[in-house]
Design a protein that fits this description.
Blueprint lengths: L2 H20 L4 H8 L3 H8 L7 H10 L4 H5 L5
Length: about 80
């Protein structure tokens, strides 16, 4: 994976963590709300997962935001 791609995944993971923490939620609570496993959320927040469109939609719904906000400012 290129350094640019790694940077993008880390930026996305940081955004998810920021929104999750803003709601005062644990990774477990987000995982439950999004229908995903906690270890998936953990890997995503560390930038180790290349998230699918469907999971972006699940995360946005659980975090009470839009997919656009999750992706905002992440250079493609």
């Amino acid at each position: 994976m290129s350094p640019e791609n790694e940077s993008q995944l880390k930026a996305f993971g940081s955004r998810v963590r920021e929104l999750r923490e803003g709601l005062g939620w644990s990774q477990d609570k987000l995982a439950e709300g999004a229908g995903l496993h906690r270890t998936y959320i953990s890997g995503l927040e560390r930038g180790e997962r290349n998230v699918s469109v469907l999971n972006i939609l699940r995360l946005a719904r659980a975090l009470k935001t839009t997919p656009g906000r999750l992706l905002n400012d992440i250079e493609g």
